[in-house]
Amino acid sequence: MVNKNSYFYIVLITLVATLGGLLFGYDTAVISGAEGSLQAYFTEGLGLSSLVHGITVSSALIGCIIGGFISGSFATNFGRKYSLIISAVLFLISALGSAFPEFLFFTKGEPTYALLITFNIYRIIGGVGVGLASAISPMYIGEMAPPKIRGTLVSLNQFAIIFGMLVVYFVNWGIARGQTIEWVNDIGWRYMFLSEAIPAVLFLVLLFTVPETPRYLVSKNQDEKAMNVLSRLYEKTMAKATMFEIKASFNENTSKAKLFTFGKKIVVIGILLSVFQQFVGINVALYYAPRIFESMGAARDASMFQTIIMGLVNVVFTLIAIFTVDRFGRKPLLIIGSVGMTIGMFGVAAMAFSNKIGIATLIFIIIYTASFMMSWGPVVWVLISEIFPNRVRAQAVAIAVAAQWAANYFISSTYPAMMEVSGGLTYSFYGIMSLLSAMFIWKFVPETKGRSLEELEKMLVNSQKKDEDVA
Q1: In the prediction, which pLDDT does 434 show?
Q2: What pLDDT, on the 0 to 100 scale, is given for residue 255?
Q3: Which residue, among 119, 103, 145, 94, has the nearest Cα to 42 in the 3D structure?
Q4: Which of 64, 127, 129, 335 fits a 20 to 30 Å CA distance from 23?
Q5: Alpha-carbon span 195 to 26, nearest angstrom
Q6: What pLDDT is stored for residue 320 in this prediction?
């Protein structure tokens, strides 16, 4: 059992780790308010194409792919805690550099190709921070959390992501509210990026107050430190039993397990979970929300305000996932969410085909995002943090998260060009992906509710043996 006094400690540790999720959301959504200004300042100022604009808006995702890919190496060599500290530093550098890319080398207010490249480099640096945090924050929480509340605590990371997006929607709206388009295009977008420095500093400072995870400590033969951490999380008997399970999972014969030691199936499932989470089109709705609402006839201020409404919906439905993921399980939530996303996206597509862009479009977008936030948003991170065995978790999570960011980049960067061809076909594609995601969950994804990470590992080993026997 978990010590009653330990719940508060566990929650505090989780909240610190979820600041990585908050910065993940903040960094990826800050572009929604600045996107139009970046188009005016760089794309139009330099006479570039919509494809270049799409790449600029999505450039942080290149860093996210890199950060996700290297997260396994960082988590293994530097630990979960110090990898998150590195990500916090990268967030801070990106916030300052993206706001003032002219610093030291360029003249303010004079866009050049070199300045555009420099801006994108700063965004990529922030993306590396996002990639690291997106993989390691849920991994850290998953390795610290007791089995019965692991889904809830890891889901808090998704809540932090969405809350970070909501905060930056308010910040962007507050900066742009009452100002002229010229001021926003010249100065306002800089303040939007600069505001990220505040949570980045907070994250950096608080990380020095939390412990390393016991599973990482055991992997480095620091058993005494691991036991000290477990003693803060559980009663004495449970702490010893958990320590025994962890040590058994790092036995001498398999301590240097390779990525496919437990078979390719579970790695492929992790990758496809990540890919489907992006191919359903969620980040198109998040990154381009103001522009979507402007296309519905809203003024710039009003479009940002409608984005805030969408952000509030996201927070409410993420809370639903937090309170139900350990009660109903992972699979039911994902399947229900996929059905809702399918309805929402095909509804948006129908409105686009009929050229009836109005309140109905907003309703379908809300149905879509609400369905995602109560399911695929938080639950995929829960599954990725728990389905992989201890000895390959860092490697496997890195592969899955890198695949997720690669899919994110592909979907986000191709959206402007796809919309020039057909809005209806674009949203229909996301609707088809939503439908396929439901079929994938129903057929291939195991239920993980209420099991310890070590119990899940045993279940996976048995499943692999059955597959080999059938083969």
Answers
A1: 95
A2: 47
A3: 119
A4: 335
A5: 9
A6: 86
- Residue 470: both structure tokens together: 């059938």
Cα separation, 213 vs 453, whole angstroms: 13
CB 18 within 8 A of CB 159: yes
Average pLDDT for consecutive 10-residue bins of the chain (471 residues)? 70 91 86 80 74 78 88 91 96 93 76 85 93 91 85 85 84 85 85 93 95 91 90 84 83 56 77 92 68 57 63 82 83 93 92 77 85 90 82 83 85 80 88 95 82 68 57 48
Q: Which one, of 427, 439, 433, 414, lies nearest residue 345 by Cα?
A: 427
Contact 289, 307 (CB under 8 A): yes
CB 368 within 8 A of CB 341: yes
Rounded Cα distance between 318 and 134, Å, is 17
pLDDT at res. 89:
97
pLDDT at 142: 87
How far, CA to CA in Å, does 52 sit from each of 27, 31, 237, 250?
Answer: 20, 15, 59, 48
Tell me, what's the pLDDT at 193?
Answer: 92
Report CA-CA distances (Å) from 62 to 4, 69, 210, 270.
Answer: 43, 11, 30, 20
- Nearest residue to 160 (alpha-carbon basis) of 120, 133, 182: 133
Question: What's 71's DSSP letter?
Answer: H
Is 115 exposed, middle or buried, given 0-12, 13-18 or 19+ CB atoms closer than 10 A? buried
Distance CA 60, CA 338 (A): 27
Is 371 within 8 Å of 467 (Cβ atoms)?
A: no
Q: What is the pLDDT of residue 161?
A: 85
The pLDDT of residue 94 is 94
Lookup: tokens for 196: 């990220």
Tokens of 201: 């500093």
**How much of the chain is helix, strand and coil, in % rounded to 5?**
80, 0, 20
Q: Nearest Cα to 20, choosing from 121, 131, 96?
A: 131
> In 3D, which of 455, 467, 464 has the Cα closest to residue 249?
455
Q: Which residue has the tokens 């950096």?
A: 204
Q: Which of 122, 27, 339, 79 is nearest to 226 (CA)?
A: 79
Which of the 8 DSSP states describes residue 422?
-
63 near 125, Cβ under 8 Å? yes
The DSSP H or E segment spanning 65 is: helix 60-77
- Conformation bin of residue 48: beta by default, left when phi > 0, alpha when psi is -120 to 50: beta
d(CA 346, CA 333): 20
Question: pTM score, two decimals?
Answer: 0.78
Degrees, nearest 5: CA angle 131-134-140: 125
- For the chain, the residue count is 471
